[in-house]
Specification:
It is a single chain. The protein has 344 residues and is mainly α. The protein contains 13 helices and two strands. A two-stranded antiparallel ribbon has the order 1-2. Helix 4 packs antiparallel against helix 5, helix 4 packs across helix 8 and helix 8 crosses helix 10. The longest helix has 32 residues. The chain is flat, with a radius of gyration of 34 Å. The chain starts with a helix and ends in a 12-residue tail after the last helix.
Length: 344
């Protein structure tokens, strides 16, 4: 049994004994007042490397801006001319059509490659092998001269009479030849992209769908493909940008794309460098827009794989602005430390 006198004595003893050093604070502020301040490690090499990189970047920008050979006044004059804009529109149209048709043809090829039917699997593999092994320029030139092999094309009974015939030269113009050649070439790569995306989906998803009695086609369309899009979209975005730049090769067929339109201009004015800069700036601008769109598409399909989506550039900018606004407020705020009352 503890008496009141014992409590009084113990309280006096505890008051006489000083608290430990790690608990002592000025005015009873807390245990961290006397601890040494943690200073982050200084990375001198990192800052020197960043300074050197910025110096080199500034030198490159200065050499480009102040170099009179680029003739920036000529670049600004031809940047939005009708000929250049018409070529840009054809380039964008050609890129969109080739990508859509390429994936429409490449998706069945990917499914055939994964089929249990050996005939379909072999035919799909042979198609991908042929069109990936042949350079794109060779394919375009081959389709452009297809009239030498097949002067006429007909529609009729196989190995029998033909009801409708048409001359190949009149049927396949430069633009249609470019669409056919680019589509067949992109379909081979699109088939491998789709096949890789399908293989990235865990086999347990298909087994679960089969256990629920869902058919193979519905499983592929509603379960496998939506999950495979997380792996398909990044590679498809790279293909889209590559196709945009790869359409410049159709200039050898006299298709009036962006590069060919620029070539027609500088063949008359002999201002090669500024006109090439016009094409370069347009390619950079369109590629930047496509890259931004790819980011948001990837973010859309990442909803099922992560609880928190990656912040958008606008959200990152808002966070940085809020942090910059909070710094002056912290610096001007008064030191609001609670007054020490000795525990009374």
């Amino acid at each position: 049994m503890v008496s009141s006198s014992d409590i009084t004595v113990s309280s006096r003893v505890s008051a006489a004994v000083p608290p430990p050093r790690h608990l002592k604070g000025s005015g009873g502020q807390g245990p961290d007042d006397d601890l040494p301040r943690i200073v982050p490690r200084r990375h001198a090499g990192r800052w020197l490397t960043a300074a050197a990189a910025l110096l080199v970047f500034a030198m490159v920008v200065n050499s480009v801006v102040r170099n009179r050979a680029f003739q920036w006044d000529v670049v600004g004059r031809y940047f939005t001319t009708a000929a250049v804009l018409d070529g840009l529109v054809l380039t964008l149209w050609l890129t969109g059509v080739v990508m859509v048709l390429g994936f429409l043809l490449g998706t069945p090829l990917a499914v055939m490659r994964l089929s249990f039917n050996p005939v379909l699997r072999t035919l799909s593999w042979g198609y991908v092998w042929i069109f990936r092994s042949t350079p794109l320029l060779v394919q375009l030139l081959f389709w452009f001269n297809i009239g030498a092999l097949y002067p006429t094309l007909g529609l009729g009974i196989p190995f029998g009479p033909q009801f409708v015939t048409v001359t190949t030269v009149n049927l396949l113009g430069p633009t249609l030849t470019a669409v056919i050649g680019l589509t067949l070439h992109e379909a081979a790569y699109a088939a491998e992209v789709v096949r890789g995306g399908i293989l990235s989906v865990d086999s347990g998803q298909t087994e679960a769908a089969q256990a629920l009695g869902i058919g193979r086609r519905r499983t592929l369309r509603r379960i496998v493909i939506p999950q495979a899009m997380r792996s398909i979209v990044p590679t498809a975005g790279n293909m889209l940008i590559g196709t945009l730049k790869g359409t410049s090769i159709v200039s050898v067929l006299a298709v009036h794309d962006l590069l060919y339109s620029v070539q027609l201009v500088y063949n008359q004015t002999y201002q090669v460098i500024p006109l090439l800069m016009v094409a370069t700036l347009w390619y950079v601008a369109v590629t930047t827009v496509l890259s931004a769109g790819q980011f948001y598409v990837e973010r859309h399909y990442a909803r099922g794989s992560s609880r928190t989506l990656p912040p958008t550039p606008l959200q990152r900018l808002r966070v940085r602005l809020a942090a910059l606004r909070a710094r002056p407020a912290r610096a001007t705020a008064p030191d609001a430390r609670p007054a020490a009352d000795g525990g009374r």
